[in-house]
Write a structure and sequence with these properties.
Distance between the termini: 12 Å
Helix content: 10-25%
Order of helices and strands: HEEEEE
Largest sheet: 3 strands, antiparallel
Number of domains: 1
Shape: globular
Number of strands: 5
Structural class: alpha+beta
Length: about 80
């Protein structure tokens, strides 16, 4: 999702609508916006992991030049 797509989706909501994210093992948490960060796309193939990763975590992203890196935020 891009910022443009998010803005368009949010504009359809009542401004008082609460925004949540999934909890770690269940339930929901209030959404928080991270600072912009570099994200490496399509790193993880396991179905229990989200596909993307923080590009600065060297355990997963040893060489940034081998991955598609984009700026992003985490809600």
């Amino acid at each position: 999702m891009t910022a443009k797509e998010l803005i368009e989706a949010l504009q359809t909501l009542d401004p008082e609508t609460r925004i949540f994210t999934h909890g770690y093992e269940g339930g929901y948490c209030d959404a928080k916006i991270s600072s912009p960060m570099e994200m490496a796309l399509n790193i993880h193939k396991e179905d229990w992991m989200g596909p993307h990763e923080d590009a600065d975590i060297r355990y997963y992203v040893k060489d940034k030049s081998k991955h598609t890196i984009v700026k992003g935020i985490v809600l």
